[in-house]
Design brief:
Layout lengths: L1 E8 L4 H15 L3 E5 L3 E3 L10 E10 L6 H14 L15 E7 L4 E3 L5 E3 L8 H11 L12 H6 L8 E3 L10
Antiparallel strand pairs: 1-4, 1-5, 2-4, 3-4, 3-8, 6-7
């Protein structure tokens, strides 16, 4: 399975955020080979006034035996907790780190939980900050499971002025498994 995990955060310096992203990648390295997308700066949308986010994604080529989507979600939440994510937090509030399971191979998953899980991520095709790094990892011609458009077409349909995303020179240090 090829898994894509979205990374985001906006509490702390860019150096601290990159350290958390790198620590998350290192914590997942035992599950398979990891590739990291470039890092983007994203204006916070929705919720209270807050600092811009840093966003990226990891491609994880899972080894056998691969965890189930629910097992992987539990692992991601444990990594978030280890890296200082506070729960519960108001929706769309500032955070130290956010790890989202964006894609899990070609699978469509809908589990009520706990923890609740929907894959592909229900807002993947509506968020430039998630689409850009996913396209960096998989290419624009990939279709998300259950989608009628490619990732590139979904990105082209979004209004860049409503969801400002800027490339950065920042890169995630990650472990190659």
């Amino acid at each position: 399975h090829v898994v894509v995990i979205g990374l985001g955060g906006n509490l702390g310096s860019p150096t601290a955020l990159l350290a958390r992203f790198s620590a998350a990648a290192a914590s997942l390295a035992h599950l398979g080979q990891i590739a990291a997308a470039p890092v983007y700066r994203t204006a916070a949308i929705g919720g209270p006034d807050q600092p811009d986010y840093l966003n990226s994604a990891l491609r994880l080529d899972l080894r056998d035996p691969a965890p189930s989507p629910t097992e992987l979600l539990t692992t991601l939440q444990a990594i978030e907790d280890q890296l200082g994510r506070l729960r519960p937090a108001p929706r769309w509030s500032a955070r130290t780190i956010d790890l989202d399971l964006l894609l899990f191979g070609r699978q469509e998953v809908e589990l009520p939980g706990p923890p609740a899980l929907t894959v592909p991520h229900p807002r993947l095709l509506q968020r430039r900050f998630a689409l850009l790094p996913t396209i960096d990892l998989l290419g624009p011609d990939v279709m998300a499971p259950g989608a009628a458009v490619t990732l590139g077409a979904a990105l082209a349909a979004l209004d860049a002025s409503v969801q400002p995303v800027w490339p950065t020179e920042l890169r995630i240090a990650h472990a190659q498994a």
